[in-house]
Amino acid sequence: MKRFRQATLAIMIGSLAAINSSSAIALDNLPDLGAPDLVEYDRQTEERLGRAFTESLMTQFDLQEDPEILNYIRQIGYKIAGNSGQNRNFDFYVIRNNTINAFAGPNGVIGVHTGLIETVHSESELASVIAHEIAHVTQQHLSRTYEYNSTQGSITSFATLLAAVLVGIYNPNAGMAALMGGMGMNMQDQLKNSRQHEQEADNVGIQILHESGYDPHAMGDFFGRLAKSSQFNAHQVPEILRTHPVTLSRLAAAENRAQVMPPLKVPVESNDLILIKMRIAAEKEDFSKLEIKSLTASEQCYLHNLQELNRKQTEKQLRQSRAQLDCLLREASENTMQPLYNTLLIERIKQFKERNSNADLKQPISEALKLISYQQELWPNNLAVQLRHAQLLELTGEYQKAMQVLADGSEKGHNQYQINNYLAQFAREQNKEALANYYQARAQVFVGNYARARHFIDEAKRINNQRNEGIDKQIDFFNAKYTQNLQENDQKEVIQ
Ligand SMILES: [Zn+2]
């Protein structure tokens, strides 16, 4: 194995060396763009930048909200972040976009494009990119490369520009085009990580990747393969290689570092990646990147049910697709430790119920409920398990229990923004408008948008006074708890 890896690396280096030096993939003659280290941001500036950056991601880009996909990335991200040796803030987002990219923004905000998830060959490769980004954060590369000061405009416009450059998709609205014109191009150059920063992110990243139970060779494998596959076409360089240039010495150093790692004590690689790829493919109804022939019977069952879920079906077709549900019921019961089967089963049950189908769902409902209660106990922070559990309870008429399941996760864990938004949706479905606004206010607090939180809590109060939904206490408590933040924002720009 060891020898094989060295041999492939040697071949790869040989072919990379043949590339003309004007190619976009930099070789060892890469100019070191990492300017002398700049002053690091103070904590407060970093937090403000992080909030504005998140706001920009949420308003300017197409964020993936599928709880299964989001949960998958967060679960990998927090596992690795937990081994980074730093007790600091991290947030993980998925951008719905076909380009191969991942980035580390200010204050530990990390983004992964769906195109990256579709391209990796293993969960370890995906984890390796996330570990590399986490390392850029812990080593404070962004703040050491690009210093923010108030002469560059407001924090909001700076963060918007930063997001545009890092995400690499330019929202063609007029404001952003103007921003991109002057300062943007300059920033684009500066944000390219230097050779030294890349090496450091690899070193630290491979270490924490390994400590988290993933294959330490995955980072070199992935970046090497990307560089190789794009070497003949300078116009199709994956976005990620523009900000994280691959050099021969970088690949060799990554491989050397991985070689000296002891064997993994407890490998953590799951079988979820292929199912997550299916969900991405199903959303855009393009399965061309999936290797359908190599799917196991369980995975095929997952795929068929996913396709049934997304298909606009006639009554008759839906009745016929009841047979698929039985295979999923079997898979969910057999793969209790892989809750993706059960959460899809619940989505399918919901589909039948919403279409007022008269199919007999007694057995699937009781089995799914038994499984999901168990899974929720095992993984209390799994966003998909929480939402699907609540949805199933709502379907069976247990609204209060459904709200309780979500409320349990709404004040702790990493998904508070999403869970409070789910609570708002559930409240709205029950025609509880004041309560819905109250939960929306809470959701905004978790992404630091106090201007919007203020708007929603005022709405909650107004509607509650009119309709008396009986949530006075919650509103007063909310206002008391966040008085300072809600007032602080009075002077700042109000976000629409
Ligand atoms: Zn990098």
From TrEMBL:
Residues 73-257 form the Peptidase M48 domain. Transmembrane segments: none annotated. Residues 1-26 form the signal peptide. One of its GO terms (biological process) is proteolysis involved in protein catabolic process. The keyword Transport does not apply. One of its GO terms (molecular function) is metal ion binding. Keywords: Hydrolase, Metal-binding, Metalloprotease, Protease, Signal, Zinc. It comes from the Bacteria. Its cofactor is Zn(2+). One of its GO terms (cellular component) is membrane. This is M48 family metalloprotease. It comes from Thiomicrorhabdus xiamenensis.
